[in-house]
Amino acid sequence: MANASVKEIVAAMGGIENISAAAHCATRLRVTPKDKSKVDIAALKKIEGVMGVVDGATQTQIVIGAEVANVYAEFCEYTGVSEQAEIDDPIALKEDLKGKKGAGLTLFFETVARIFNPIVPALAGCGFLSAIIMVAMAFGASMQSETFATFVAISMAVFTFIPFLLASSTAKVFKMNEYVALTICAAMMASKWTGLIADGVEFYHFVGIPFRVIDYSSSVLPIVFAVIVASYIEKGLNKLVKGPLKIILVPAFTILFGTMITFWTVGPITYAIGQGIANGMNWLFEHGGWIAGLIYGGIYSGMVVLGIHHGMVPVLTQMIATQGFNYVSPTSGSANIGQAGAAFGVWLKTKNKAKKANAASACFAACVGITEPVVYGVTVPNGKTFLFAAIGGAVGGGLAGILRLKAYAMGGPSFLNFGMFLGGENALMNCALVMLCFVVAFVVAAALTFFFWNPDEAE
At 433, is the secondary structure helix, strand, or coil? Predict the structure, then answer.
């Protein structure tokens, strides 16, 4: 995208003076305007290189695709917005959002996305390494090899110490001292507690009040809510404590009160909730079978459009970290590949050269795990094709549900990342059947698009 296009984006956003902050993910330029009424969504959609626009309660998300990092750099240079700048505090935005339909739910998912998006590269990177390990083990690699054992330890690092990553990202979102948050995380993961657990101790006491001893390594929700609670404690202490001792007393009491409140209440409650959600998802797929897969595979692409798929990241992370697998990724992967299939159908059917080229590139991107270009650039704009993609995802997901297929690593489920499905007693069979589900989703969506989509209606 040329500089002129960046200028067009800024103009459609209401000018430089209307831009509060900007960030980006794998495919989207995420801009936070000061005044949403000044944003011209229609103009944004017409800009060359823009594949689509998602207008959230607080952010305008502009779908760019693989070039988003370059566009973001140009955007920051042109606007003067710092690449390290944070968007408005969701707590401070609460009053502005009151009375807006769906604003609370939108705020929730945007907050989840802002906490988890920064750690996705680490999760995806270690997930890919784990996938390589699965492939290596399928071909006879053994933990007896020091090199392989070291490789395994490196790949598992993010899952063992994920609370530290979450403490950092949550602290940034809720505007508290990042290092104080990390210290609370360290207190929660101190070796003292694992030693007590090894000795069979279930409860310990502080000032005579008992708390459950829990191994918080690999946990997700406890540290997120611990930091949220600590952020309020820190803000209260900053208002209450004055004078030169503030630099000592505020962090000291934030760490003490934040940690102990977490031990007594927040930690056990959120730990149980996390375990319950993971167990609930397992139960749903183990007992719901094809129905669970059919429904989730059918609605997942819609979740992506609404941005609520971010809400599944903590669930999948918890499941992989604690039990080593999840039933969800083979189903969501089917939905992604269904989108690729619909794009392939568009490529076969359309005579428009620009749409044909766009469909081909989007199809390839979806096959390797990046779905935003195909969703916002192909299937949604072409109407029925999005429905056909969803049907393909539902069929592939239903098949995955019947077979109770599993993923053993984090990452974007796709043909490229097949290694994440290698695991368990029948690793090769599990992986092969997941790939079969993907093929089924692709073929169904492509066939429906080819036979029932009329290019003239869209062109």
Answer: helix
Residue pLDDT, tens place only, 301-311? 887 776 667 66
Strand partners, 23: 30
Report whether pLDDT(382) > 50: yes
* Phi, psi (deg, nearest 5) at residue 71: -65, -40
One-letter amino acid of 440: V
Tokens of 317: 């992370």
Backbone angles phi, psi at 62, to 5 degrees: -105, 115
C-alpha pair distances (Å), 421 with each of 133, 293, 331: 11, 16, 12
User: 339 falls in which pLDDT band (50, 70, 90)?
Assistant: very high
Q: Tell how far CA 391 is from the center of its chain.
A: 23
Question: Which tokens in the block code for residue 422?
Answer: 């290698």
Produce one character per residue of 373-398: b if its CB has 16 or more CB atoms within 10 Å, e if not. bbbbbbbbbbebbbbbbbbbbbbbbb
Question: Which domains are assigned to the chain?
Answer: 3-88 (3.30.1360.60), 161-281 (no CATH), 287-458 (no CATH)
For residues 240 and 318, the model is more confident at: 240
Q: Which of 87, 102, 114 is nearest to 57 (CA)?
A: 102
Give 423-446 pLDDT, tens digit per residue: 777 878 999 999 999 999 999 999
Residues 6+ apart with CB under 8 A from 303: 309, 312
Q: Quick one: pLDDT at residue 103?
A: 53
How many of the other CB atoms lie within 10 Å of CB of 35? 10
Model confidence, pTM: 0.64
Q: What is the structure's pLDDT at 107?
A: 65
Cα(6)–Cα(450) distance, integer angstroms: 36
CB atoms inside a 10 Å sphere around CB 229: 20
